[in-house]
UniProtKB/TrEMBL annotation:
It comes from Arcobacter roscoffensis. Belongs to the glutamate synthase family. This is FMN-binding glutamate synthase family protein. Keywords: Membrane, Transmembrane, Transmembrane helix. Coiled coil: none annotated. The chain crosses the membrane at residues 6-24. Residues 124-534 form the Glutamate synthase domain. It holds the Pfam family Glu_synthase.
């Protein structure tokens, strides 16, 4: 007993010495934090709570950034393929004003609603693209997203049968994780030694496949900085990556069927279509497009009206290889797309891409007012009247608030309309110019749940791209550490290049959740169409909506609602003819 008390006394003494030294340091030595001078030790609680604020924010109180916590819960339940029903009432009802849907007097059973969710882009091109789903995973670059995260998205898209946007980081090796039927003519293949394979088998037997692949990669490539640019196939036990130096004739003439439908995003950095000097490389672009269905030129993205920015610590040797840049240097793309000094120049470049790929090409923009869409419509109309086919096959419109991961905070609430206003305005302008049937509208921006999709499609969109929802389905807990510039990394390994975090990410498990989220979105969209009495998603239009304003007044004329919300001005068709 005496020995035990002695130990306790020693521990208490050590504790008091540490606290005293800490007190003296905070009050008399350090001069970084004013608060600690007045409140030594206890003042540090402020910094502890500040650190915990973001990663734990969503677990306390009502949701402030999205419309309600219920919507976030819907995403996570859908990803886990769990029933999505609320008991008694919503925990956080949607705030007003809000759009409501018109239900039918005689509703349909869900089996009476078509399973046809196809959307065709570029009908006049040699190789038009018919997406089998109205939903795609929006642009997220391999680099901003970890290699393991990208593989999960690719596998999920392949299993779910929906398109995936490459993001401006281009089509990296991680987009080829499902591609097994490749030819040696365009792939570089690396074999491991018999010893390395035996070691891999032992590690896999005692641990897991991911750890075994990691050990095997180190044995095969040793200190090669580009080791991560090779994809490992556990069944064939081979490493492979695309050999972009192979001649174009060696590349597949059709997109391989064991790959998901990829939309190539081409940013101002021209990644995936540039030479080592940063100039556009037609040959590289054509090779990349052998694996993609269409091209989206990124003019703008959400509040991020600047070029894409990837901090130096995220530019690993693998990312540098993919983008033709130097490793561990900031990769900041120019604000302006290099071939878009005018709308006319941009459309001419679109024509160049259409000719090189024979596939649809579109642009991604953000809308603040009518001046952001009207010049596009006017030039499309002029070219169609002149028999010129060099114009966008689709216009992707992003909502102005935030981004899926990072954007300058000073722009997040100051740049761009929300996606509902943007889609309505774009649809109206294209109709006024008589070209709506020539151009598809793609929408993205805080679209999470089936009701969001119904509203956006009713307002005029043909196709939906979702970033945040898919991020959450892939394991994102919204800790808001995506940029990695705060000294913290994504805690789940999804949006970081930190190898310690990345290698613990469950690729196959999260891929299934990505697939589940997409499938449950479509399933619930069908359910909503049924109560609206509609057999097909193409029957949606603005007359299927009502608007409940902040005073609970119901408005059944959506045009009048937006007329008050947006100062659209005089009839655009008259303006067009006056300008000629």
């Amino acid at each position: 007993m005496d020995v035990f008390l002695l130990y306790i006394e020693i521990i208490v003494l050590i504790f008091l010495i540490i606290i005293t030294a800490w007190y003296v340091h905070d009050k008399y030595v350090q001069r970084d934090h004013q608060l600690l001078v007045n409140y030594p030790i206890i003042g540090r609680l402020r910094y502890v709570l500040e650190e915990a604020r973001e990663p734990f924010r969503q677990y306390f109180g009502d949701e402030k950034f999205y419309e309600s916590k219920d919507k976030l819960d819907w995403v996570y339940k859908a990803a886990n393929d769990k029933p999505n029903y609320a008991a008694f009432s919503p925990s956080q009802p949607l705030p007003k004003p809000k759009f409501m849907i018109r239900h039918a007097n005689i509703v349909l059973n869900e089996d009476e609603v078509d399973n046809d969710f196809e959307v065709t882009f570029g009908e006049t091109r040699k190789y038009p693209y018919t997406a089998k789903s109205i939903i795609a995973r929006s642009a997220m670059s391999d680099g901003s997203i970890s290699p393991e995260g990208t593989r999960a998205f690719v596998r999920g898209a392949q299993m779910g049968g929906f398109p995936i946007n490459s993001g401006e980081g281009s089509v990296t090796s991680n987009f080829f994780v499902t591609h097994k039927t490749y030819e040696k003519g365009y792939m570089k293949i690396v074999h491991g030694t018999t010893f390395a394979k035996k070691v891999k088998d032992v590690v896999q037997f005692f641990f897991n496949g991911a750890m075994a692949a990691d050990v095997y990669r180190k044995l095969v490539f040793k200190d090669d900085p580009e080791a991560e640019t090779y994809v490992f196939d556990l069944k064939s036990q081979l490493f492979h990556r695309v050999n972009w130096d192979a001649p174009l004739v060696n590349f597949p003439s059709e997109v391989p069927k064991d790959m998901p439908d990829i939309i190539l995003q081409l940013s101002s950095g021209l990644y995936g279509a540039r030479d080592k000097d940063g100039k556009f490389d037609p040959d590289r672009y054509q090779k990349t497009m052998r694996f993609c269905r269409m091209t989206e030129i990124k003019i703008a993205q959400g509040a991020k009206q600047t070029g894409g920015k990837l901090a130096a610590h995220k530019v690993t040797p693998a990312i540098a290889y993919y983008r033709n840049v130097r490793a561990y240097t900031d990769v900041f793309s120019p604000n302006r797309f290099p071939y878009a000094n005018t709308i006319e120049e941009l459309f001419d470049f679109i024509g160049t891409l259409q000719e090189l790929s024979d596939k649809p090409v579109g642009v991604k923009i953000v809308i603040s007012d009518i001046e952001n869409i009207e010049p596009y419509a006017r030039e499309i109309k002029r070219r169609i009247d002149a028999g010129d086919t060099r114009y966008p096959d689709f216009i992707s419109i992003d909502g102005g608030s935030g981004g899926s991961a990072t954007a300058p905070i000073e722009m997040m609430e100051r740049v761009g309309l929300n996606i509902r206003d943007s889609v309505y305005l774009a649809d109206k302008v294209l109709q006024e110019f008589g070209i709506r049937d020539k151009v598809k509208i793609v929408a993205s921006g805080k679209i999470l749940t089936p009701d969001d999709i119904i509203v956006i499609l009713s307002l005029g969109a043909d196709f939906i791209q979702i970033a945040r929802g898919f991020m959450m389905s892939a394991g994102c807990i919204r800790a808001r550490y995506c940029s990695g510039t705060t000294g913290h990394d994504c805690p789940v390994g999804l949006a970081t290049q930190n190898k310690e975090k990345r290698k613990k990410y469950f690729v196959y498990k999260q891929a299934k959740k990505v697939r589940n989220y997409h499938n449950n979105l479509l399933k619930s969209v069908k359910g909503m169409l049924a109560i609206m009495g509609l057999k097909n998603v193409k029957q949606l239009n603005k007359h299927r909506l009502l608007f409940l304003d902040k005073d609970s007044r119901v408005h059944d004329n959506i045009d009048n609602v937006f007329k008050r919300r947006l100062d659209i001005g005089k009839d655009l068709e008259d303006e067009y003819h006056e300008s000629r």
